[in-house]
Amino acid sequence: MQEKLDSIKKEALDAVEAITEISVLEAWQVKYLGRSSAIMEVFKSLGTLSKEEKPAIGKAANIVKVALEAASEEKESQLKQERINQSLAGEKIDVTLPGRRTVSGGLHPTTQTLREIYRVFGDMGFQIYRSQEVETDQYNFQHLNFPPYHPARDMQDTFFVKSAEDRGDDPLMLRTHTSPGQIHAMLEHTSKYPDDPPPIRIILPGMCYRYEQITARSEIQFNQVEGLAVGKGIAFGDLKGTLSNFARRMFGQDAKTRFRASHFPFTEPSAEMDVGCFLCKGEGCSVCKGAGWLEILGCGMVHPTVLKNGGFDPEVYSGFAFGMGPERITMMRHHIEDIRNFWANDLRFLEQF
What we know:
There is one protein chain. The protein is α+β, with helices and mostly antiparallel strands. It folds into two domains: 2-88; 109-350, BirA Bifunctional Protein, domain 2. Helices cover 41% and strands 19% of the residues. It has twelve helices and ten strands. It has helices spanning 2-17, 22-33, 38-44, 53-90, 109-123, 137-140, 164-167, 180-192, 236-251, 304-309, 326-334, 347-350, and strands spanning 127-128, 134-136, 160-162, 172-174, 200-209, 221-231, 257-264, 267-276, 293-302, 318-324. A hairpin with a 2-residue loop joins strand 7 and strand 8.
């Protein structure tokens, strides 16, 4: 039996030494280490040997098996390395070629516009105030002069988180505008200074949500930047001066502005501000639809009811508020015709900014 083991070992090692292909090595492994191999037959025949022979033959057979497995692993490693070397030898590297530029990300076009808006109002003394995106009916509508029966509610279809059935008359919703932040900011301010609150000047950026049909001009989610200034003696002239200054800083010193009467439940009087089309210089084009003007925001004097809900005495304090859409401003500045591009995550679009 020992002679048979020596013969198996010699034959297998001679055969593996001559192998030059992985496929041939796999066949060798089946022949000499597989279930039907000669070495496995020796293990199967151990039961027929005497008690004296069995330990010695078993040990010798195991030594042969380990030797064959080691030879197989060494040959496999050798063949794989040879394949790698051949692959590398076939490649040509031109060290004179310029290096490939590292691709880096950039700021989203809306983020760029938002940061510019922050900078402009920051220069005018406004602070940034953040508020939550999930609001109650009380803050989203009622405190802003939108009572439950008010017809203006029909203008803003709403995503409800918890309906009136779960929370009575104060359901939870995704905010439809950033205006609820005005109430939070004013109440926080007046609770800190209950006797004689100092003036407040803030902008409130954030995401808003409305249940609308998605088109090239409307989305179900969009950014807004709300502005609020409250103090003693603030007049509509302060509002016009602030927003006209913003337009010149944002669109250039030659930017023209105009105010048109409008209506919002939380401001009185209310207005919309247009800026002269900076593409056609007021002559009329496809962007301004031939009017020569572009609407960029709504504004007005804070309604006395809203001031009162915010903790300010409307007999003593007054203020103005405004709201603008950064996506709309970005679309006008870069002549973007489809608002859906902002949320499509298409690098062909985003890499242009």
